[in-house]
Amino acid sequence: MQTTPLWPARLDHIRRDSDAPDRLVAFYRDAFGMAARELGGGLWLLDGFNRRLLVGPGEKGGQNLSAFRLSDKAQLEALRAHCTAQGLKLLANPTPLFADGFALADPDGRILAFGLPDAKFPVPPPGPGAQALPGRLQHVVYATTDLARLIDFYVGKLGFRTSDDVMQGNQVTATFWRSDAEHHSLAAFRAPKAGGDHHAYETTGWGDIKLWADHMASLHIKLWWGPGRHGPGNNLFFMVEDPDGYKVEISAELETMGPEFEARRWEHGERALNLWGGAWMRS
Ligand SMILES: [Fe+2]
User: Fold this and answer.
1) How far is the CA of 171 from the centre of ligand 1 (A)?
2) What is the CA(196)–ligand 1 centre distance, in A?
3) Is the pLDDT of residue 226 over 70?
4) 65, 71, 217, 228: which has the fewest Cβ within 10 Å?
């Protein structure tokens, strides 16, 4: 197995773009219990205990920046050297939330950042109301028309480890990658159009799913899919839609495994995506 300095890397934040960012800021503030502040230039930071994202002006439904936090300077420099040795073009740190870091453009043009958090933006303590609900930003998922190209980049070049593949004949239709012991920090689905798919907040258990669903109900936000249990990852989940129709997930009980765990295979179909019932089929 190829080893790279990627392990361990954790999803630190993503950026969501919208043609109506104010609406999105209000939604994530209220529905996902985060405090909102403008950083300048129309860019907003939403943050809470162990969860944060950037929201800015752009294409509706955009999810073009995924930022992974590394352990220390030595790991950052080792990963930078590894990416250079792989012939990848290194870009400047694209996010104000990292004090030091670099970025890559993936084959679909998404920006993937690696870095170390800037102490100017410390992790806030749990706040009042929904800000007290546990939900750590945990994974982000892409839609793509060319999974093979993404697999070559993320697994082949960067060293993400495959935990599960969903297969239709010999074609991969969804793939789940880990960068630490958690089953996936990143995943990608075959879809008619490349773009963002969803991101997820990991909670401490089934009881939290109930608390979050009751909280969504208090805001008249309908569950869009679930509750259910995914095959790959074995996690409990539900999803809601944000005002742009982009999906957001609350999750619990995500599997963990070591770096040497061998990837499993699932047959393409609803059962792979929801052991309990119907599924959101991207293709
Ligand atoms: Fe997910």
Assistant:
1) 21
2) 12
3) yes
4) 217
